[in-house]
Design brief:
- The protein is α/β, with parallel strands linked by helices and about 200 residues long.
- The chain has one domain: Vaccinia Virus protein VP39 (Rossmann fold, 3-Layer(aba) Sandwich), CATH 3.40.50.150.
- The chain is about 35% helix and about 25% strand.
- The protein is built from seven helices and seven strands; from the N terminus they run H-H-E-H-E-H-E-E-H-E-H-H-E-E.
- It has a seven-stranded mixed beta sheet, sandwiched between helices.
- Strand 2, helix 4 and strand 3 form a beta-alpha-beta unit.
- Helix 2 crosses helix 3.
- It is globular and about 45 Å long.
- The termini are far apart.
- About 35% of the residues are buried.
């Protein structure tokens, strides 16, 4: 279970991702817990030793899915987000950088997570290629499942002017279209739908 307290450092920093994770809305908290549990179950038998969370944000997903993984590395474009992620994932190490230009060697990790990131990228194909490059075995990817994600936002009164679409989301995939997109670069071994997200576990070719 994720701790959802607000620290003094968080008081001066906000993001949509952080607001989502510290929300007091019981339905939103239940959906996130269900999503993180599904992702963790998909990783349970992989026995990965070196793990990258690419686009880790404030570290909530890393904490929930990986726990105290001794060799986890988190990366995010936001220096402020990395600072918060480090504070709640003391066993991990962190770097600031671009998912489309990862500062790691080819095959540096057994497993690469990229949760709720690809929908934000101008060229998601380039981001997926980089994730494949630095992983020698596994990828775990998640994106909003459209149009369910937008519909859920609209019904709860969020981004109503845009019919529920988050303005920072540049790509909109259904579960089927996302699996087609991912299959162009890697082999999908498992897909789970945890409303309103799609999660895909993949092997690097």
């Amino acid at each position: 279970m994720i701790e959802r307290h607000t620290s003094p450092h968080q008081a001066s920093y906000t993001s949509g991702n952080m607001q989502k994770h510290i929300s007091g809305n019981p339905l939103q908290r239940w959906l996130l817990d269900r999503f993180h549990t599904a992702a963790a179950e998909m990783l349970a038998d992989l026995r990965a030793t070196a793990v990258l969370d690419a686009g880790c944000g404030e570290g909530f997903g890393m904490q929930a899915v990986l726990g105290e993984h001794a060799r986890a590395v988190g990366l995010d474009y936001s220096v402020a987000a990395v600072r918060l992620a480090r504070a709640q994932n003391m066993a991990a190490s962190f770097a600031s950088g671009d998912v489309t230009r990862l500062p790691f060697a080819d095959g540096a990790f057994d497993l690469v997570l990229c949760m709720e990131v690809l929908e934000h990228l101008v060229v998601p194909e380039a981001g997926l290629a980089e994730l494949c490059r630095v992983s020698q075995r596994w990828l775990l990817l998640s994106v909003p499942n459209e149009p369910l994600f937008r519909g859920a936002n609209f019904l709860r009164g969020k981004n109503v002017h845009a019919w529920g679409n988050a303005p920072e989301h540049l790509n909109h995939w259904s579960s089927r279209s996302f699996t087609r997109f991912v299959a162009q670069q890697c082999q999908i071994t498992q897909v789970r739908r945890s409303f309103p997200w799609t999660i895909a576990l993949c092997r690097v070719r």
